[in-house]
Amino acid sequence: MNDDAPGSRADLPAVSAGRPLNILIITQWFEPEPSAKGLAFAKALRDQGHSVEVLTGFPNYPGGKLYPGYRLKPVRVDTIDDIRVVRAPLYPSHDSSALRRIFNYASFAASALIVGMLCTKRPDVIYIYHLPATTGVAGALMSKLRGAPFVFDVQDLWPDTLRATGMMQNRHALALVERVCQFVYRRAARIVAVSAGIRDTLVSRGVPAEKIDVIYNWCDEQAIHEGTSAPAPAIMANRFNIVFAGTMGKAQALEAVLQAAKRVGAIHPEIQFVFIGSGVELEKLKSLKHQLELDNVVFVPRVRSQEIGAFLKAADALLVHLRDDPLFEITIPSKIQAYLAVGRPILLAVKGDAAAIIADGQCGVVAQPEDPADIAAAACKLYTMGEASRQTLAANAGKHYLQHFSLAIGARRSMDSLIKAVRD
């Protein structure tokens, strides 16, 4: 794209914060892949009067296979809703192998640096989404070479996440990752933290508090609301449905929820747990269901984002569960935003920041993670409290999303961070 092309600086209106900016978003995941900072985010920044370009990989997440219509090549340039998307090659993988996942992340980082330098226009500021030790390093080097400051988005803490999920246990490797992360944090002009707990932890590790902005994630609002008009799935008929939608991996520790379902079934057999999605633990969970002889647990294969809204809207309650690990006390699972946006009561079994959101919004019931008895008690509480009380929780959830988590609010705050990065 040259400076005379549509969408260039000359065609952009003046904005109150100053001249229009050329913004480069670097993210390993982008449309058609699910991503918290995907196409909707890019368009929201553009709609504030700026030029936006995206540097990303070839779509393969979450299945680890290239999406139909894509094949690996040195570079591919797409235009999606007038957003220029430059794709760099990578090693497609997203399974339980730590080595293959490392190749996936590292291959994108290496190729993104080369492709970004050769095939993207010079940015005024760079927004780097996620993975500090790989994408963050590539972005930091590009920032140096292109003379543009960058904002780094911390979705979760490395190496803490690697340790907690079991992806990496070698202490020397973890120490190396920590040093790399500190390099990225030092180089960043601004840092976006998605929870107050992450901000506080970064400050405790020497990152200046004044350059950190807490900006919550949002959900795919369009897809969620498009799906809510669809009829309720047949498998949910005539039951009180508690729905979990998303990845079923080690971090979710859903064995405890199946143990809770066993307890619930003995008291209220009309309560059904519905698990929608995929993940490395799915087959183990199906085996456990068989071992426990659970007839109140249903597994549904992963559905398109445009279809998930029907399941969420038909749910009587929506479930969030993570392992009982200190890392997850400062984590806000991305499904919380989708659950809030669709306006349903939430059963949350996570400590810390996530629990505070549910309590502050008065939009659900909080249980102890990995505690089958407490999770079962919370499920029974939601069932027995009655429809009127659940409707109050549901209304509170929708209101809480609009006030604190919407795309409009998040994009505006993100733009403020980008402008501060340029001015500083």
UniProtKB/TrEMBL annotation:
Top-level lineage group: Bacteria
Keywords: Transferase
Annotated InterPro entries: Glyco_trans_4-like_N
GO terms assigned for molecular function: glycosyltransferase activity
Pfam families: Glyco_trans_1_4, Glyco_trans_4_4
Limits of the Glycosyltransferase subfamily 4-like N-terminal domain: 41-218
Gene3D superfamilies xrefs: Glycogen Phosphorylase B (3.40.50.2000)
Record flagged with keyword Chloroplast: no
The keyword Disulfide bond belongs to this UniProt entry's keyword annotation: no
Coiled-coil annotated spans: none
Xref: CDD domains: GT4_WbuB-like
Protein name as it appears in the record: Glycosyltransferase family 4 protein
